[in-house]
Amino acid sequence: MKRILVGGLILVLLVALAAGCGKKDAGVLRVGTEPGYAPMEFQENGKIVGFDIDLIEAIAKEMGREKVEFIAVDWDGIIPGLLNGNFDCIISAMTITDERKAQINFSDPYFQAGLLILVRKDNTTIKDVEDLDGRAVGVQGNTTADLWLTDNMKGVRVVRFKGNPEAVQELKNGGVDAVVADNAIIMWESVKDPTLKVVSYTPFTVEQYGIGVKKGNDQLLDEINAALTKLRENGKYDEIFKKWFKTE
Amino acid sequence: MKRWILWGLIIGCLFLVVPAGADGQTPDAGGQEKAVVTVTTKLVPDVGLERGGKSPAVEIFIDGKPTGFTAPHTFVLNPGQRYELRGKARGYTDDFREISFAPGEHNFQLSLRLNSFSFILYVFPALLWGALLTLGLTVVAVFNGIIIGTLVGIGRVIKSKVVNLIAGFYTDFIRGTPLLVQIFMFHFGLPPLLGLLTGTDAVYVPAIISAIVTLSINSGAYVAEIVRAGIQSIDRGQMEAARSLGLTYRQALRHVILPQAFKRVIPPLGNEFIAMLKDSSLVSVIAMEELVRTGQLLQGRFYRSTEIWLAVAIIFLCMTLPFTRLVAMLERRMKTGD
Lengths: 248, 338
Known about the structure:
The structure holds 2 protein chains of 2 kinds. Chain A has 2 domains: 28-112 and 208-244, Periplasmic binding protein-like II (D-Maltodextrin-Binding Protein, domain 2, 3-Layer(aba) Sandwich); 115-198, D-Maltodextrin-Binding Protein, domain 2 (3-Layer(aba) Sandwich), CATH 3.40.190.10. Chain A is 40% helix and 23% strand. Chain A has helices at residues 2-22, 51-63, 78-83, 98-101, 144-152, 164-173, 183-192, 218-233, 236-244, and strands spanning 28-33, 36-37, 41-44, 47-49, 67-72, 89-90, 105-106, 111-113, 115-120, 136-140, 157-161, 178-182, 196-198, 207-209, 212-213. Chain A has a 5-stranded mixed sheet. In chain A, strands 11-10-12-9-13 form a 5-stranded mixed sheet, sandwiched between helices. Chain B has 2 domains: 23-114, Immunoglobulin-like, CATH 2.60.40.10; 118-336, MetI-like (MetI-like fold). In chain B, 62% of the residues lie in helices and 15% in strands. Chain B is built from 9 helices and 9 strands. In chain B, helix 2 runs antiparallel to helix 8 (291-302) and helix 3 (161-176) crosses helix 5. The A-B interface holds A 75-76, 79-80, 99, 102-103, 138, 141-142, 146-147, 159-162, 166-167, 169-170, 172-175 and B 44, 188, 191-192, 201-207, 284-287, 289, 293, 296-297, 299-303, 305.
């Protein structure tokens, strides 16, 4: 009896495994993203949209892929997810850093970003990064905002949220004095919500976003880079850029 | 003294190398081309394991033999040979490279990773702080939960329609909604509502208060069910006997039913504590850096999931195992009194 049971279990596992393997389709590009970072990637009417999303769709089209499948993941699980093979690449406003480069490979930079500070409209004391000293600052954990403040501003009480929307909500509720995040995101929030304002429009860091690909998957990386170059040349990139950042 | 000679050598070699790089030609010493190798190192992460928080020196080994040099170091290779270059430092895993003779200037960066044991030791203090918060939140929440739960649990069995209804609504609402939703509702949803009621902007509730209140209220509902089940499990005859001896309903409940029910609720209360110890990790969504969140943040920083999650699991076990033993002991003690 026991033997039959064990045999049955193994069979079920094998079937599941085979089904899992069979799912991989060459025509589909599976993309991991954390859709809580408007306007780069966010949910609207139940769909993931944003600059990154349009860009990767254009890249996939250029690469000759039939379909792009988006997999929404937590920011904390995005690199482990890529390493586990849950998706083929990451596009999620991810800054190219040395620490991340030790884990995954990045495409050529596709977007220049930098950190900005968001405060409540009535705030008059925070005018500069230095003014954050001794204050509570909301960030999304493990983003460059978190890492930069933790490393460079020892006097700041860094409050690390799982997602950026929570950090902004905390700012509105008065739990933190400021929120630090990438420029596009901070500007988007300040436009969307009239009770918030941007401290200065000049970012205090210079960062480059890259598309993350698992180490060893050089073929995909080359294809992505080639497609990116093509999109920059034929004006498609500018078209997408204008669509999302026309006010600048 | 030795160090000065070493530095002299390094600087001397640099002088040899720099002009070679500048005019694109290799220096020709005695008719032989030279291969000049510069070894630098990177410690990942550099945590200063030596006394006084200094980074450990990386010793250079060539073909398994110590050279007596520490990186950074520049040296000249003999022609026609292959070498295995290895860097060793205390607390780090070795990094090694195959290098072979080629004329010109070569730079090698050895990057040494903290070994698993040192890494766990390195992240342990941070994890322990997280564990302390987890344990503190759990103890406070379950303590409050027992108080709330006992009252509500009694409220569900006594003969009062209104109290039954209120207590029932409370347990249904809390048990019927996810803890995560309750945390969001309280921490993010309440301040604007309070602001609306008081006519000001949002009234902020500190995250620690939100965490304690939501966990306590949540625990209370589960404890209430435990208490209700405990009371109802006592044979109906006990109440009837107590009443027929002339005790009032309240007296019978207090002196006959509850003491007996108490023994029965000890094991499920132990379960509730352990469940809360694990569920309390949900407060990470309001930026409370408890054990699990600390682990996540460290993982995002160092990308060493195996070591981090092993350490987190061990710390959780260290908290739950003594507790299960304690509950088992308490259970045995109570039995002897039967």
